[in-house]
Amino acid sequence: MKTAVVTDSTAYIPKEMRDKLNIHMIPLNVIFGNESYREEMEITASEFYEEVKHKNLPTTSQPAVGEFVELFEGLAKEYDAVISIHLSSGISGTYQGAVTAGQMVEGIKVFAFDSEISCMVQGFYVTEAAEMAAEGKGPEEILARLEEMRKTLKAYFMVDDLSNLQRGGRLSSAQALIGSLLQVKPLLHFEDKMIVPFEKIRTRKKAMKRIVDLLSDAVKSGEDYKAVIIHANREEEAKEWKAELEAELPNVEFMISYFGPVIGTHLGEGAMGLGWVKK
After folding, report:
1. Domain residue spans of the chain
2. What is the pLDDT of residues 18-43, one digit of tens each?
3. In CATH, what number does 3-28+63-149 get?
4. Which Gene3D superfamilies match (predicted)?
5. Is 154-278 a domain of CATH 3.90.1150.10?
6. pTM
7. Residue of 263, 270, 273 lying closest to 29 (CA atoms)
């Protein structure tokens, strides 16, 4: 059985990696006033962070179901099945859009997978699925492996300002108010598909150290892990952090990714995150 792998733009998998692994990507949109841009195609992360300095905060939107249908119908000419991996259904309707489209197309079986997370941590699922599909593995075997990964896959992130998350409806007003009053740098994570506070920490430095402690606890068994540092327009800080982490945790393979336009709209510039999974 020949299986295609689809994801959305919020996995922020570099184009060269998508091309190499034959990953099909459907974009979400970021909207400045009357101007709508498909992220990763019509606007880059660096262009986005420059735009928001001069304009009001944009809104975001999921892909139309018709875009999924068109993509799946095109894949049906070459593939028997599709695994479509998307950002958490608790913060976006994108996953549900894939489910709906999958029920509308004929000639191909669509298996939608809710990553229950986002960004390159979602990308860990996608790249694993693509590598397995390239080896000729079928959708059931791939999905079983993704569920196995879910047991060790974690991500924590910190934002400089909670107001974007609160305004976008991704975090409750009460939680945003508490954060702004105390000037804390709350550690956030996904729980039950939603973004919720994990711990409230006073400073950026202490918040980042706490994330490292959580990773250290996860990898102390000595098993091999891979991890990703995710930044919102803080590339130099991410590179420095990577060098420190590589020296501290030699059994972890680190890479750097970014919060792109759609997720960056909700987290704001300066956000930093760290995600990991057992190899």
Report:
1. 3-28+63-149, 154-278
2. 999 999 999 999 999 999 999 999 99
3. 3.40.50.10170
4. 3.30.1180.10, 3.40.50.10170
5. no
6. 0.93
7. 263
